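Not sure how to ask, but would you mind making up any protein sequence you like and the tokens describing how it folds?
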Amino acid sequence: MSEVLLSLILILLLILIFLFLKGGRSGDDVESAISKAWVKLGLDDKVGMLTTYARDIRDNYKSLEQMLRVCTERASLGELSLETILADQLPPDMFGIRKKILDGKIPDAYIRSTVGIICIDAKFPLDNYRKALEQKNPSEREAFEKQFSRDAERHLKKILDDYVCPEKGSAEFAFAYIPSEGVYYWLINKQYEMLRDFAKKGVQTVSPLTLSHKIELIKAGVHAKKLSEEAEMVRENLWKISRGFREIDEKWRIFYETHLKNAGRKAEELDCAYQRLREEFERISKLSEGE
């Protein structure tokens, strides 16, 4: 950063000197013009700011490099990225961070799914992988890579023992989260058979990208289950309505056949008696009027 800045300043000064000399100006004029241009452009402040930025970037880079070297801080970085992914993609009631589950076990995170609790471990051992990258000697690099593979195998075995226990409420698999796509693809290329064997046993190794894809599948499963439950609720309600209708229909038929029809027949008999009585009354009235 500082070298680029000095080069730009040097080019600017050379251009100014060339222009003034070409115009026949004296050395004092050149010096005065450069000084005025320097002040007018505020290069003093800008150079100071750029120097500060360069120092901050260098210090932050060293801080990040140190964080990746220290096991506990690197684990924290992995846990933080894992928590961010879960919080971005899942509702709060679907996941948890560092809580006791499964008889006191505390995974770095877990997801509530339709197949049980899916535990996630984010403390993948990367020390020997980093050392392998730092080696220029091929044989030494290979030695550290082999050690890293052994570390990975032990770690996956521990996840299998701790977090894959369906009898206690877990899913039949757990996730081993690697916060680095580079490390993940190195393992895929170099230790594919080992990862496949552990996946069959119940430990799936995931990176930020692949974990995000799996979360979407888990969400789809949960959504499908909710739709199925709602459909079952609708079916149950329809069955209740149907049963209620049958009961009402039965009571209506009894009422109609037993009471309403009888009432109709009685009404007809009463109407006929009334008509006869009326006719008799009219006949008597006519006889009275004739007298």
Observations:
- The longest strand covers residues 116-121.
- The chain is about 75% helix and 10% strand.
- The longest helix spans residues 208-290.
- The radius of gyration is 44 Å.
